[in-house]
């Protein structure tokens, strides 16, 4: 049997040509064995018509086996030639022929160096993507943290506003200086909140770009 893998032929046929030839060989061999058994049974039946014949069934079996061995040797030689012819002329694809699914390689040929350069570029882009994705996750985490800080600042401002309203409603003069101080701090906190909101907007824009 041929040792050539014939991978391109296997892609076209869906099976290797060697497998096809092996199945044909087994089928022919099985038919040869069955034929010899039929011949042997016919000879045995004919011998029953000659009671004086001194040939025993054992001798017939030995002769059948010898003849079968002779036939198999000649069959193997003939099949070897037939296999060579079929693999070269029938079950092979010429080197100048491309399968339809491989036409794209003819239109866009690539050398090994070009292919390796393309692989390197793909690997580099994958690394850049991972780095940007990691940075995006870090920015997202920072954004969530700033949202939590903003919520806390809003609570503090609300508390200051409520305290200021209470002092104003009750007209407690003892809290005048405290209110001035609280108002100043409230404005500072508002400035901090604006700064946090601006940073949050910048982070969102950067996240959208990713």
UniProtKB/TrEMBL annotation:
The keyword 4Fe-4S does not apply. Its main location: nucleus. Residues 108-199 form a coiled coil. One of its GO terms (biological process) is mitotic sister chromatid segregation. It comes from the Eukaryota. Keywords: Cell cycle, Cell division, Centromere, Chromosome, Coiled coil, Kinetochore, Mitosis. The keyword DNA-binding does not apply. Pfam families: Mis12. It is found in: Chromosome, Centromere, Kinetochore. One of its GO terms (cellular component) is MIS12/MIND type complex. Belongs to the mis12 family. PANTHER family: PROTEIN MIS12 HOMOLOG. This is Protein MIS12 homolog.
